[in-house]
Amino acid sequence: MNKSIFISGLLLTLALGSCYKDKGNYGYKDVNDFEVTVTPAPADKETNIYLVNQPGATTETFLLTAEGKQTLNNSEENLEYIWYRTLNVEDKKVSSDTITGKENLMELPATKKSKWQVLLVVRDKSLDIEHYSNITVKTKVPFTNSWLFVHGAAGERKIGCLSWDVAGKAEITPDIQDAMGRPGYPNMTGITYSAGGAQDYILMERLFITSSPDSITYIFPFDCKKMGDYREMNVPANVHVREVITPNVNSTSYVAMISTEGKYYYSTSWGTPMFEQPQGGVSSDYSIDLAYMDSRGDVTLWDDTHKRLMNCIGGTIGYMGTVDANALAGKKALWLGRDAKTSAGDREPCLFIAKNEHNNKCYLYHISYDDKGDKMAKGDDSKGDGGEGFAYGNVTCDSTHTWGFDESTLFAVSDYYQDQFFFTKDNVVYRGIMASGESIELYELEGTIKKIAFRYANQSVVEDFNANQHILALVVTNTEGHDEIHEIHLNNGGDVEKVEKYALGDITIIDWEFTALNRLTDY
470-510: per-residue pLDDT in tens? Predict the structure, then answer.
């Protein structure tokens, strides 16, 4: 019995083996396979998501074109293209339809957030084979995390924009106000960006446009809608604006204004500022040349005429504490801004850089507002008159290094790089080490460096954006006389990883600001 089973199994195995070999002798018929390409290609090919700028005052369109490539058939008569489409506007479904053909033209409504959800089906009718692609086309808030720059001749000024899509591809918009269908400000002289302070608790950002003759306009920077003008800001008729001061990245409502006469005005109002003069016992003939507002809204001021450091804390202006007035005599101010020196308290430190007017000796004044207590000094900088008011602010001076700064030196600081700062000399960018006085050459270029700044000087509460603290940007006038933006990407130690250069065309940049965000945008 066992022998029978063995023989039967052997015969079955041989039979199956014979069938397998015989099957291998048959030929196969090739199948007409095909692939589909959609143009333009999405920035994110894994998700098939297209992000396009939200239109301004007029409806815009976005076109997708499908192309099927076949392995056997050169004719496309056997291919059918079907687009199943749904449009949502402001998160509400408004339409759904089906169209055929290679092209899919979609309308994007003006001034509204919109999204097209699309299913593309390409069918080979001869073999009944189908190819599917899920595609999303949605608008994004324009001009966020971007460089805005004022350019053009007086009377013809525009605000341009250098931005990036989700894949990191640069996009240049020559005139953002025209792009959004808004009126321009051809007489503008400067812009000042604030990441907070608007009355809307979600759309918090403000852009202040300073124009001649002596006016300020407040707009929402991402659709260029006018939100307030000079006549609503409580500025006396005889006061002419020189510049507007705001924090770098914060949600504070504080904003300040310096008049052409060097007088200081501040506002704590949300939305449109309501400027007022500060209280305090300083001399009435003060004249502010430099001002820096920290992330809390506290302001450090420099009066070059009288060689005095001052501050305005909570609407009260006063002289700087723990520094003798005579120690500032003969000093030429070079820069006033954020300090990268470690501070013991939770208040942002400030850095004032000056040089001796008679030699090359340089001074780094580290200013902190950590705590009142022993940081308060009575009448320290009140011109020796025995003033009764308290002078607030602790100042320490580092004058041991000959850095070689002059009036043309430009400075930048990021709070990521502690105890370091970045500066220019001729056409070279250096990293300065405060503790040792060492200068490390980072980047040499052809042309002239006009401006220097980090995208973000202060850490953002949105962790996704903190990489911007590692990107140091320059406005460079090239050898042909046109301005470019160069961005130096730094590693964690402050050394150069790469440099990206962006040609902007035949323009001259007057002023610039980076639209740093303190929130995630809803795409």
Answer: 999 999 999 999 999 999 999 999 999 999 999 999 999 99
Residue 172 to residue 474: CA distance in whole angstroms: 16
* DSSP per-residue codes, 61-130: EEEEEEEEEESS----TTEEEEEEEEEEETTEEEEEEEEESSEEEEEE-TTS-EEEEEEEEEEETTTTEE
Q: How far, in Å, CA of 208 to CA of 205, rounded?
A: 10
DSSP 8-state symbol, 465? G
As a whole number of Å, the CA-based R_g of the chain is 32
Alpha-carbon distance 314 to 279, whole Å?
A: 9
Contact indicator for 214, 260 with CB cutoff of 8 Å: yes
Of the two residues 183 and 295, the one the predictor is more confident about is 183
**Euclidean distance between CA atoms 175 and 436, whole angstroms:** 45
The pLDDT, as a whole number, for residue 400 is: 59
Cα(86)–Cα(134) distance, rounded to whole angstroms?
12
* Tens digit of each residue's pLDDT (9 = 90 or more) over 436-446: 888 999 999 99
Please spell the DSSP secondary structure of 366-404, one letter per residue: EEE---SGGGEEETTTSTTS--SSEEE-EEEEE------
- Sorted by sequence, the CB contacts under 8 Å of residue 72 that are 6+ apart come out as 30, 31, 32, 33
Query: Among positive and negative, which fits the CA dihedral 33, 37, 43, 47?
Result: negative
Percent of the chain with pLDDT over 90: 55
Matching residue, tokens 């591809």: 169
Q: Which residues pair with 163 in a beta bridge?
A: 171
Pair 105, 84: CB distance under 8 Å = no
Work out the pLDDT band at 11, boundaries 50, 70, 90: very low
Residue pair 333/304 in contact by the 8 Å Cβ criterion: yes
CA distance 120 to 130: 10
pLDDT of residue 27: 52
Distances (CA, A) of 125 to 16, 29, 77, 129, 333: 38, 18, 9, 7, 77
Question: Which residues in 229-256 are b (16+ Cβ under 10 Å) and which e?
Answer: ebeebebeeeeebbbbbbbbbbbbbbbb
Q: What is the rounded CA–CA span in Å between residue 264 and residue 281?
A: 14
Higher pLDDT pick, 446 / 393:
446
Tell me the mean pLDDT in the region 68-75: 75
List C-alpha distances in Å: 476 to 184, 427, 444, 498, 503. Answer: 25, 9, 11, 17, 10
pLDDT in tens, 142-194: 899 999 999 999 999 999 999 987 667 898 999 999 988 899 999 999 999 99
Q: How many whole angstroms separate alpha carbon 336 and alpha carbon 354?
A: 9
Q: How far is CA 135 from the centre of its chain?
A: 28
Q: What are phi and psi of 215, to 5 degrees?
A: -140, 155
